Amino acid sequence: MTSSPGHVVRPVDDPHDRSSSPGTEGAPLLQARGVTLQYKTRQHLVTAAYRVSFDVYPGDRFILLGPSGCGKSSLLKSVGGHLPPVEGSFTLAGSPVLRPGPDRMMVFQEFDQLFAWKTVIQNVAFPLVTSGRCSTREANDRALLYLSKVKLTKFKDSYPHMLSGGMKQRVAIARAMAMEPAILLMDEPFAALDALTRRRMQDELLELWDNTNFTVLFVTHSIEEAILIGSRILLLSPHPGRVRAELNCDHFEHTDQGGDAFITLQRRIHTMLFDESQAGGPDA
Amino acid sequence: MREARLSVRQRPEFEHAVLPDANIGAVERALSPLERIANIDWVRRAAILVVLAVAWEVYARYLDNPLLVPTFMETMRALWSAAVEGRLLSRVWSSLQVLLIGYTLGVLLAGALTSLAVSTRFGSDLLSTLTSMFNPLPAIALLPLAMLWFGLGMPSLVFVIVHSVLWPVALNTQTGFLGVSETQRMAGRNYGLTGLAYVWRILVPAAFPSILAGLKIGWAFAWRTLIAAELVFGVASRSGGLGWFIFENRNELQTDYVFAGLMTVILIGLFVEEVVFRTIARRTVVRWGLER
Prior knowledge:
Order of helices and strands of chain A: EEEHEEEHHHEHEHEEH
Number of domains of chain A: 2
Number of helices of chain B: 13
Strand order of the largest sheet of chain A: 6-7-8-3-9-10
Number of strands of chain A: 10
CATH architecture of chain B: Orthogonal Bundle
CATH class of chain B: Mainly Alpha
CATH superfamily of chain B: MetI-like
Largest sheet of chain A: 6 strands, mixed
Distance between the termini of chain A: 26 Å
Mean pLDDT of chain B: 86
Structural class of chain A: alpha/beta
Number of domains of chain B: 1
Number of strands of chain B: 0
Largest interface: A-B, 25 and 21 residues
Low-confidence stretches of chain B: none
Distance between the termini of chain B: 53 Å
CATH superfamily of the largest domain in chain A: P-loop containing nucleotide triphosphate hydrolases
Oligomer: heterodimer
CATH architecture of the largest domain in chain A: 3-Layer(aba) Sandwich
CATH topology of the largest domain in chain A: Rossmann fold
Low-confidence stretches of chain A: 1-24, 277-284
Helix content of chain A: 25-40%
Strand content of chain B: under 5%
């Protein structure tokens, strides 16, 4: 593992310090080893990612960060089992990833990821029942529990089309978390939200993480979001995606945003991304 | 530069307390009774029917030739007596039986074909080719052949009805399946759903608006085909259907009974469209917000 130079000083008595994640203790939960991803369009064979390797440890908030075209979403899809690598492999808790499965729940950017024909609670309970994890009644109880965690108990019997974008994303998060997957895969889940809602959702996600310490693999193209959400950031360069750096960033809050450490890290990432990608730079 | 811009229009800042709600006046107002009645769908529809009936009555009286165009009232009288005598109802029943059998078979076949089409590339090629071949072919054109194969009777009728239902339903279902977003597909597969469970629990509900449209079109095609086929032969199948009822009365120059038969076709069509399909739509696609 490439470790970042220790230029970031951890605040000693920060009550919201999230650096208690297990970090490098024990075996990695998810291992990517030399993964190359390709997909075909009608005319071209496109290489989305080239020989990418990384390790995600239990309790990590692991960020894939890069400009558009760096294959970060493709990597996430591949971990989800929807896009098999042409070279290399993913290993989850010791066994190779071969097909989609409920041990890796995905949260997408699109609002239509909820099933329009099911109410909010049915949406959350559905995967629990179909994957054979729970009986219908247990599934309902569990769904209610997770809906209360995302503060949507009041809307449990609404249909998705009655909810706002932010609420839909919260349902999607509850649905994924209720499955208690080995790893949660989030593909820019807040990108389609307005700035105020996005900020609130980021805080809520961190709050949820404080309570349950789930492992999450999170894709974003926003440097700011990466620093806020992540405990570790994998930086990818574009066309095709290759590993540029891996950084620690375990202790930032929205209130740190004007602070020196935050800005230093932000600049550092910015420089690394802009060194190579003149076209289509990231928005911070 | 900046200072210059500021100095051009220097306006004072201000902050207000929010006005109390009571000052705003009526935030919500009930609509007048007339507006509310005009908002009920079936009232507006019924008004159209009444206008049409009145126009018919006036024109028929003006024409004064019951052999060509009987009046609305005469038609209603004929409809009533045909229904009460029992002749019409048994004809309707025998038509509906054939129709339901053919329709059900057609829908099931369409379901099987499209399920095959989503799971394999061969299936999807097969379905596209067959649909573009047979969808434009009027079912009634197959009737002579069907009579040769299955004889004069129910099997021939069922055959042409299946043909008229199968292709539009299959086409609409496949179009619907193709329109299901990649996100929903991935979400479904994420739960470990595959094969028929995946089709049934994800694709069918997600594509339900166009499946329902296909079912409606299929129903209308089946109905038309059946009446047309019965006009061609009804004698042989002893009981005879609604189409035969119309044909028979035309031969006896009982035009009011011909109109009564046509009216029955229309009434059944209206009922199925406005009550059956509308109820299904209200409980599914409208409730899910997929259709208004």
